[in-house]
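Hi X.,

You mentioned you wanted examples for the new student's onboarding notes, showing what a folding record looks like when two proteins sit in one file. Here is a clean example. The first protein comes first, with its sequence line followed by its C-alpha cells.
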Amino acid sequence: MSEIETNIKLIEAAARGERKGCDAIVRQFGQTMFGIIARLVADRRDAEELTQDALLRGIRHIDSYDPTRAPLKSWLCRIAYRTALNHLRRATIETASIDDLPPTAESDMVDSFMREPDDHRVELLQRAIRRLTDDEQLLVTLFYYEEMPLADIAYIVAQTPNALGVRLHRIRQKLYNMIKQDDL
C-alpha cells in the first residue's frame, strides 16, 4: 500500500472518530510535529502540551485536509508551526534577525565549514541555531533535520520555494558568522 493510500485510510478513520485512525496519526506524525514545536519553544513541557494541542486540532479538522494542496505530513506540520507561533506571540524572546547581518561570508567558506563537522563545531552550531529567530529555526529544522523538500516547507510557511532557498542561504551565512564570532 502506498503512502497516499495509507494516509487516505488514516484520514477516513480519523474523520469517523475511530481511535485506530487517530492513534496512527499520532504515531506516524507526532514526533515530527513535536520536533518542529520543540525547536521553536524552549520549554519541553510547553512543547509537549503544544504538540498535543496541534495533534488534536489536526484530528478535529481532518475533514478540511485537501490532499491536492500538500501531503498530510506537511498539513500537520503547518498546524504544529502555527500552534507554536501562536504560543510564542504571547512571549517575547530576544533574537537576532538575518537582516541585521551583512552577507560577509563567502558561500564556499560557509559550505566548507559546515561540511567538516567535529564535536566543537556541532556544539557551536547548536548554540548558534538557538540564537536564530523562530522562523529561521523552523526552516533549519524542516530542511536539515526533517529533510523536507522546499515545496512542502513553502506550503507550511506560506512562501515560495525560491524565497525559502534564498532565506536558507542567508541563514547558513548568518550561522557561519555567529560561529566564527563565538569561536574567536
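Then the second protein repeats the pattern, sequence line and then C-alpha cells:
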Amino acid sequence: MKKNTKTRCAQNNRRGEILVAAAALFRDKGFGASTIRDITNTVGIASGSTFCHFKSKREILDAIAIEGMRQVLLGAEALERRRMTPEERLRTLMRQHVGFLHDAPTRDFVTVLLYESRELSDAARAEVMVLMERYETIWKNCLRRLAPAAKGGIKESLLHRLLFGALNWTVHWYSPGADLPPERLAEELAELVLPGMKDGSGKALS
C-alpha cells in the first residue's frame, strides 16, 4: 500500500512539473510554437514521457487553463469568507488578481489562460467559464456593496469588466525590475478607482 501511495505521489509531482514547464513555455513562446520535446527537455524527462500523463499538447493546455482559473477562484473564495469592509475587500481582490498575473507560480498559468483560450478544447473552455462566472460573481457582489448601481447608473457588471480589463492589460507593459512590486502596483491602481466610488464626504457608498 505504501509503495502504491509513493508511486501516486511521484506521478502527481511529475504531472505538476510538466504543467509548470509547459505553462512557462506557452507563455514565452506561445502554444503553437512550443513542442512536446520542448516540454520534456525543460522537465528533463525522456521524449514521450508526457503521454503517461496527458494524451496531447492540447490536453496539457486545458489542464493549465483549468488549474490557473481554479487557483484564482480559490483565492477569492477564501477572501470572501473573511470579514472586512467593501473597500478593504476590493483592495484585497485587486492585490490578489495582480499577484496571480505577476507572481510565480500562478503567473504563467493565468497568462496562458488569458491569451491561449481560443486553443482550448470545448470541454475545457466550458469548465473554465463555470469557474470564471463564480469568480466574477464575487467581484460583482463586492462592487454592488461598494458602488451601488444607483450612482450615475453605473452597474457592477460594467465596473468589474472595466477593472478586469485594466488589471489584465498589465501583462503587456509590466516590467518586474522597472515597475512597482505587484502588491504596490495593485494599491496604486486601487487609489485611482476608489475615489469614483465614494460620495462627497469621502466615504465609500454602501
